[in-house]
Amino acid sequence: MRHKLPSEFIMTDVNTTNIERRSQLLSMKLRSLVREHLGLASDPDGTIETFALGAGFVTADAAWVLVDGDASRSLGPVLAWTSQFERPVHLLVEQNAGLLARRASLFDADLTVWQINDHSITRAVAEPHLISASASDTHLAFVDLIESSGADALVEHGVVVGELRGLEMCRVVDDATTGEVRLEVGMGRHDREAFTMIHGELPTAQAMRQVIDAVLPHRTEGADSHPFNQFGVERLARWKAIQDPSTIGFSTLAPADPPVVRTNVKDSVPCVAIGSTGAKRLSTAVFVHGVDLDCVSFAVDAASRLGTHDVTIAVRRRDVIASIERLANLASIQVRIAYLS
Question: What pTM was estimated for this model as a whole?
Answer without folding.
Answer: 0.90
